[in-house]
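dumping this here before i forget
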Amino acid sequence: MADWISRDRVIGFRLAAHNLTARLDEDRLIDAAGRCGVQDSPPGSALLALHARVVGVTRERLAAAIGREKSLLQTWCMRGAPFSFPTVDAPVFTTGVLPADEQAMRHLIPGVEQAVDSLGMSLSEAVELTAAEIREVLTGRALAITELGAEVAQRIASELPSWQRERWEQEGPYAAGQPLGEAVVHFCLRILTLRQLVCFAPRTGNKAPFVLVDEWLGGPLPQVDPATARAELLRRYLHCYGPSTRADFAAWLGLRARDVAPWWNLVEDELAQVEFAGKAWMLAEDLGALRSAAMPSGVRLLPPRDPYTQLRDRHTVVDPDRHRAIWKTIGEPGAVLVDGEIAGSWRPHKGGRKLTLTISTFGPVTGRNSRLLQEEAEQLAPLRGASAVDVRLQSYGADA
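structure:
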């Protein structure tokens, strides 16, 4: 019979796996990023997520890891979103994410199906057309997606039959004035990042330019068997989000539950079944840590789309009637973590060199935790380019 696991054990286990019970030493930045990758949308979220996990994180330290040291790599990853992860772990977060077939690939990239179908081509064919031209365009250069897409699409157009070229060059449904072919190239870049052809260079202003991976790193990434990479990705997911299910893993990855057999089947003999909101699975080697896990004390200010809040069983950590306060499609706030519980949300507003943080909680906060939230807010100021911070603590339903 499967073990029954309490909610507090699950939350305590996950928070420890996410390094949110105690901050790691400052030399463990790369380790923290490698747990399950760190999403960087909206831009700056990765910096705040790492700050919540590692002592002494600064903008300069993260910029050095990405730019000068290249110990962190930036690219599109799970769910087609931009992530940072250790360069040494790149095969896990590229090859390990790459869908196994055409239908799974289409699901990973919402919106692409309509475009390629109207062109009478498969997504795989569109990806190959883009791959054939991108090296010629990008060699020795760093280009933002708009410029890169326009140049590659123009080169592809010259190779298409006349009926296809006419449709390729017509305005598409995705952005005013954008030819359909450019949009297709944009979609295909999400697959080419997973094929280790391109990645992001550090942001310049509001743009994240693309570069060739082998030029950026001074050589190609190591080639790892897809099965090996997929198995390791699933292990990392279960270590951070277990106990879990195929459906939740699929949603985190950006696929349908029926498409994750190429991942799940590889580690089935490493899994243990537990009872938690129904049947769920985790790594058997983590059962001891799960059974002994406890809720932590202390506070954290987690950014929008923090790795922890990217879990798919949101009802485990927040009552369903409060989900809209934490997860929004547009204008998503950060989450307030107090003694292991998501206790509310926070929003920043910067005026000049002053950062104002409005922290809205679901209930009263003790004097001790109020002081800790003030201290956390003060640490965020320099990360947001501010020299002073004003904290406004309120409860939901109160006037700001």
